[in-house]
Structures are given as structure tokens and as C-alpha cells.
Amino acid sequence: MEKRDLLYTGKAKSVYATDDADHVVILYRNDTSAFDGKRIEQLDRKGMVNNRFNAFIMDKLSAAGIATHHEKLLSPTESLVKRLEMIPVECVVRNFAAGSLVRRLGVTEGQALNPPTFELFLKNDALGDPMVNVSHCATFGWATADQLAAMQTLTLKINTVLSELFDAAGMLLVDFKLEFGLFHGEIVLGDEFSPDGCRLWDKDTKKKLDKDRFRQGLGGVIEAYEEVAARLGVIIE
């Protein structure tokens, strides 16, 4: 597979075309951003850690029968993935109250949510990724009702698989966001899953092991990511 022109540069990843129209290469960079890109820093090893962490999680999801865009690792910081027609709606599951849910509803951080909440957000940095509903998505053509139903079903299945995985490693999967796309008409998970896009706490101490360490100036960001990887048995070289 030949890597070709740069197609897109995001806050932490770059996407390159290949000589196969159905596949692209994702480069995981060391850039770390928060607050819709208003704060950006370079953190050594981050691209490598997230690339390998994501590959591990995608393999676990594939083994559970969940279609993902991930194909294989190409290098410490690069992966080959399916080229999707992305749906501009983020799916968010919350198992415990944290972040914007606490600010919006005034609930206590750490409160267990049973059943977990499921929310939709429009992927639009300029607008701050506003919360939307099924009616908005249908009216503005962002996604169909059938697509959203499939995305919700997959997101909740992923929540079950990963909550059990992290629980066995002594961690709480507090919340996470996912994006989906279409590959030859099939709904496919088209997002990275790493401590950048979820909240993870130590089950006993509630120590934060995710990007909130960066957002809140707690330090030890990559060390926390590597701790999560080590608990799961992810090999980081």
C-alpha cells in the first residue's frame, strides 16, 4: 500500500491517501489539544501510545463482532484504515457523571448513571460541538433515523465490551465519544479509541487516567496513558 497526498489535518491526527481508493493512512501526532483546539501542546510519545492503544482496542471490538475502520498498524505512529464517508454526529455514552454533564445538570461528579446516558453532538469545532437530537439530524440531513439507531446500538454494545475490559483492569470507563461512517453502505466505527477521547478513572482511588489530566493541568498525561496501556496488556515499544 503506497502512502500518497495529505488529505486532512485534524487536531491530533493527519490523514493520507493511498493508491487504494478504499483505504487511507492515519498518522498519530504528538499534538495534544483541549477546549476545541484553543490550547495545543506537544507531548512526547503521545502519537505512538495512542496508535498502539487504539489498535489494541479495535482488535478487541472486532473480536466482539463490531465493524471498525481499523485494518493494521503500519509503523509506531501510523495505521491503515478503511476510507469512510463520515457521519458528522458524535455519539457519547456516560456511565458516571463528569465533565459537561456535571456543568449542565448540576449533578455530582462520579455519580453512577443507571442506565448510562446516550447523547448526540454535532461535530463542528466552530460551534463548540453542540448537543443535537434525532429530529435535528433528520431535518438537516446529518444522519437518517436508521443510521442513528444503528449508531446507538453499536455504541451501547461497545460500552458493554469496553466497560468490562477496563473493569477487569481496575478502571472505570466514565464516558467516551465515538464517530461512525459508511463503508460501501455499512455503518462502521470510524474513530480512535484512546484516553484522548474517553474518561478513565482508577476504580479504587478515582485517579484520572485520561486527557482530563491535560485539561485540568494535573500533569503526567502520557504517564497516565501508559499506565492504562500497561494494565490492559498493550505493548508499547
TrEMBL record:
Gene3D superfamilies for the chain: ATP-grasp fold, B domain (3.30.470.20), Phosphorylase Kinase, domain 1 (3.30.200.20)
The keyword Ligase belongs to this UniProt entry's keyword annotation: yes
UniProt pathway annotation: Purine metabolism; IMP biosynthesis via de novo pathway; 5-amino-1-(5-phospho-D-ribosyl)imidazole-4-carboxamide from 5-amino-1-(5-phospho-D-ribosyl)imidazole-4-carboxylate: step 1/2
Residue ranges of domain SAICAR synthetase/ADE2 N-terminal in the record: 7-231
EC number: 6.3.2.6
Catalytic activity: 5-amino-1-(5-phospho-D-ribosyl)imidazole-4-carboxylate + L-aspartate + ATP = (2S)-2-[5-amino-1-(5-phospho-beta-D-ribosyl)imidazole-4-carboxamido]succinate + ADP + phosphate + 2 H(+)
Keywords in alphabetical order: ATP-binding, Ligase, Nucleotide-binding, Purine biosynthesis
Keyword Ligase assigned: yes
HAMAP family: SAICAR_synth
Family: Belongs to the SAICAR synthetase family.
Protein name: Phosphoribosylaminoimidazole-succinocarboxamide synthase
Organism: Paraperlucidibaca wandonensis
Taxonomic placement: Bacteria, Pseudomonadati, Pseudomonadota, Gammaproteobacteria, Moraxellales
